[in-house]
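hiii so um. not sure if this is the right channel but i have a protein structure encoded as tokens and i wanna go backwards to a sequence. like what aa goes where. can anyone help
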């Protein structure tokens, strides 16, 4: 199977390249060939591809910076995704696109279902919702895979931040009232590759959720990181209100992942196992 991957250096993009199943070939389109701040360029490149499925792992992911760069975030996460969808629809190539728990308002304690009402709190979430809706408008056959709290040995993420801070300080104050599912980028890559194969085989597509289990707070996520790694800082729980950031965060990021299991046989991974792999890799580095 021939897959085209948009994005080369990001967490998920890196893992897709590392976890390609045997017999599949991958064309990687990095920023040098398709800069998503130029939707026309994305469209023109996508029109030339001869793939059986496309995976889009590109996104503007700087949640706080998006509050002051909302237009750029909307171009990369919205208009460029529309351009990609239009080109893919023309070539008849199905598409796997990754989205986020940040499209939801974060209220309540129930796990969000794929067809629950969205309501992003900030610019990043709004730009990602734009991208979801744009793909729907284009008519391209596609799967939207919403995920949350992504971590790996690459790029920027909570695990690497905790290890750095844990090495510098004896006491860390971590938010305890935001609840969600940490998700290894490696598992997201496997899910995207499995979904791409199903789409290449004619699957009709749809919107689905994928996150690691169990759902926890950032404070408990940090505790597990230090249970599995050398650092022993004291973790002190604080509410979100004590840790103001430019972009509002959803308190409830729980995702109902049951439709993905029903449609593709993909279960929620236990993120603590994925964390062990990441810590081992970071240790080896
Ligand atoms: N990270 C999370 O916690 C999280 C949570 C929920 C959902 N998601 C979603 O999951 C997906 C993958 O996220 P990730 O964590 O792998 O992201 P990431 O590590 O931040 O990587 C983003 C990728 O997008 C590329 N990119 C950014 N701006 C670009 C542009 N103008 N043109 C071309 N490429 C550009 C980056 O390339 P460069 O390296 O060249 O900048 C990088 O390869 C995204 O759709 C994201 O919205 C992420």
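sure thing!! here u go:
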């Amino acid at each position: 199977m021939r897959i085209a991957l948009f994005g080369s250096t990001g967490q998920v993009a890196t893992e897709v390249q590392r976890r390609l199943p045997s017999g599949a070939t991958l064309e990687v389109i990095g920023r040098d060939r398709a800069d998503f701040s130029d939707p026309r360029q994305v469209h023109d490149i996508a029109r030339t591809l001869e793939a059986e499925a496309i995976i889009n792992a590109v996104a503007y992911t700087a949640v706080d910076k998006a509050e002051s760069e909302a237009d750029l975030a909307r171009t990369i996460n919205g208009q460029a995704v529309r351009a990609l969808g239009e080109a893919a629809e023309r070539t008849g190539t199905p598409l796997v696109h990754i989205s986020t728990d940040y499209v939801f308002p974060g209220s309540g304690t129930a796990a969000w279902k794929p067809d629950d009402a969205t309501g992003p709190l900030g610019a990043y979430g709004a730009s990602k919702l734009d991208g979801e809706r744009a793909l729907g408008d284009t008519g391209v056959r596609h799967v939207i895979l919403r995920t949350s709290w992504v971590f790996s040995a690459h790029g920027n993420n909570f695990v690497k931040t905790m290890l750095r801070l844990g090495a510098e300080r004896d006491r860390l104050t971590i938010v305890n009232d935001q609840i969600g599912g940490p998700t290894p980028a490696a598992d997201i890559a496997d899910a995207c590759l499995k979904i791409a194969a199903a789409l290449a085989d004619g699957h009709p597509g749809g919107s689905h959720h994928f996150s690691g289990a169990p759902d926890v707070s950032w404070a408990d996520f940090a505790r597990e990181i230090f249970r599995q790694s050398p650092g022993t800082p004291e973790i002190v729980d604080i509410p979100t209100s004590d840790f103001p950031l430019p972009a509002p965060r959803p308190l409830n990021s729980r995702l109902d992942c049951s439709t993905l299991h029903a449609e593709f046989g993909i279960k929620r991974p236990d993120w603590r196992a994925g964390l062990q792999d990441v810590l081992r890799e970071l240790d080896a580095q």
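oh and DSSP finds nine helices and 13 strands in the chain.
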